[in-house]
Amino acid sequence: MIAKSMESYVKGSSVIRAMFEEGARLAKIYGRENVYDFSLGNPNVAPPKELKDSVIDILESEEPTFVHGYMNNAGYEDVRNTIAQHLNKLHGTQFTDKNILMTVGAAGGLNVILKTLMDPGDQILVFAPYFGEYRSYAANYGAELVVVPPNLPTFQPDLKGLEQRITEKTKALILNSPNNPTGVVYSEETIKAIAAILNKKAQELGTDIYIIADEPYRELVYDGAVVPYLTKYYKNTVVGYSYSKSMSLPGERIGYLVLPDELADFENVVSAATTANRILGFVNAPSIMQLAVARCINASVDINIYNKNRETLYQGLSDLGYECTKPEGAFYLFMKSPLADETEFCQMAKEQRVLLVPGSSFACPGYVRLAYCVSYDTILGALPQMEKVMAQIKALPNQG
Amino acid sequence: MIAKSMESYVKGSSVIRAMFEEGARLAKIYGRENVYDFSLGNPNVAPPKELKDSVIDILESEEPTFVHGYMNNAGYEDVRNTIAQHLNKLHGTQFTDKNILMTVGAAGGLNVILKTLMDPGDQILVFAPYFGEYRSYAANYGAELVVVPPNLPTFQPDLKGLEQRITEKTKALILNSPNNPTGVVYSEETIKAIAAILNKKAQELGTDIYIIADEPYRELVYDGAVVPYLTKYYKNTVVGYSYSKSMSLPGERIGYLVLPDELADFENVVSAATTANRILGFVNAPSIMQLAVARCINASVDINIYNKNRETLYQGLSDLGYECTKPEGAFYLFMKSPLADETEFCQMAKEQRVLLVPGSSFACPGYVRLAYCVSYDTILGALPQMEKVMAQIKALPNQG
Fold this sequence. Notes:
Chains A, B: One of its GO terms (molecular function) is transaminase activity. Chains A, B: Its cofactor is pyridoxal 5'-phosphate. 2 copies of one chain form a homodimer. By secondary structure, chain A is α/β, with parallel strands linked by helices. Chain A has helices spanning 4-30, 49-61, 64-67, 77-91, 105-117, 133-140, 159-165, 188-205, 266-279, 287-295, 303-319, 342-351, 376-394, and strands at 36-37, 100-103, 123-127, 144-148, 170-175, 210-214, 237-242, 255-258, 324-325, 332-336, 354-355, 357-358, 367-371. The longest helix of chain A is centred in the first third of the chain and has 27 residues, at 4-30.
């Protein structure tokens, strides 16, 4: 009796549930601390202290019907203005409150902009590997996700592959840098090349093509990597942001969309997106968290913790003979599976109590993802287990 | 360049925006306190003090990565269990955490259950007058909203009208009691009659018909009115609840769905609804508010404030010669327009700085809605203005 469109999800989610249940089963047998779970992007680093202080101060000093009440569906004007000014200071942009729409996390923001832009049959381009939820978000609005295959082994975008796939139905390109699952950051040069391709094709086809920049990992970069702000390189850019990672608030569902003045059909996009926020059932981003993130706009989690994890995990796995892409951002490490079938490799790792996600979940089979937003002990404990897995693989009949 | 499906919304929302801008314009000229705005259901009664204490206590005593982190997409197990036990105590039901799905308010919950159940072309029945957003929620999933016309002047459901409109495409009936916009509460007898009709027709047609009970106003009842708990009367009932009104937290977006064991296709409905919560971009209900409402599960706003407003407004308008339905619940008063065209009446009221919503927004032209979740002074100030409006109407050529 459930909707036909939900049937495949229910089947899929029982596979994921089976994975979680297996994790829970292992934890019960061996103890939680002896299961090395790299499967989830749930930050283990505490939110900045300023966040807690801000929430308490808001509760103590502001009128409660204001703090917990409805506001414009786009969010509190002051909050949006604070964010606009913050972005302007960082990136030399010229945003005002009118360019900011507060959303229920980045996932809410992506659904809002897709509802705003997509007609059934429209195409959304994405570079593999990509966050698997994009498939669902596109399907929610009858849009088709068109995948540019992965560009091995660098995982930088395949520009020729992009150009070949642009049609008159192409309405948007989703860019996710720093990238989940690879940790790759797209360089300014790459962004300029992508913008040139989109401009050329849009002009040829007489269409508008939007870039939707999904940027929850913007602040999580290492070794001085720079993440270009895309609105400066391509006028039809919508940025989706979330405080889930930069402030470790994934459960609170707080983020925003940036809708620059330069967008094609700007006024209608803003009006439609604000309406979409309401009619999709979000109504508005959670009110007290809007006020709180604005009060500590310069605060951030301690990224050194992730960096230490990154260095140790990358070095450790490389030393064991695993082929890894060194992540420049986010908190994911993407690693080549030593077995052609990476689900088999994940199974072997699980038997050593190490939980990985198969690359096929990100349209990139033959690889696995490790989320290193875990305790340092988890990384130290996992490496000897991964050594055993490598030894087992080397002992297999058909392996080197 | 926005989606075709959004174009009519953008047109519609500019009408609403024009209304708000007019309100703001009047406030600027006459002062905010001299504009009597009954247009919005934004509670003016403060949340219970326990809510603030709970949030602060959670921040002071719990691990922040737990408070602000991801949990099961259905919500924290403990929170869901607390709510289940609370419902069981109040209603003699037998729910467990498995029957509760935490949602981003009632609007989020309705979208989740419609995504779960509706295939394009499915029909959803609703009694007019009804909350206009149901139209958008149905359209989000390609479902058709089939309206049972209003049953004047009591606004109790038209049972014959219901029965006549049930077809093999009928997948759900939305019931909203206490009702927005009428304030009417459906009696136990009415609920039993509706259940009997749905059972009979579902059996005849060989289908399952769900009741979706939209209950954000459940606790806001007056004069000892009783709101039957629908899962006890009809097995295929999903309840959507929100703390927006009972705890004055509309901006926080916190509510839940009740999915009873007795539902047709129960296991799949729960699995699909949990998945829908994720893929629609809600992911989960805001985490700290989940924890907070569970900690003060017995707290509620002071309903005496709304009751005083209700009595004064109802008595005052009736004394002036307006024909009102005395509300038994919620914080809305539905009133017959003294002019055949209620938008003309709204315009006259606005010229006296009283803002009303035309009944046509609720599929019930000829009436207007007043949201009395306002200060008592607003009510006292509005009555003399409404007296002037009545005098003007009586002086019109074609009026008594």
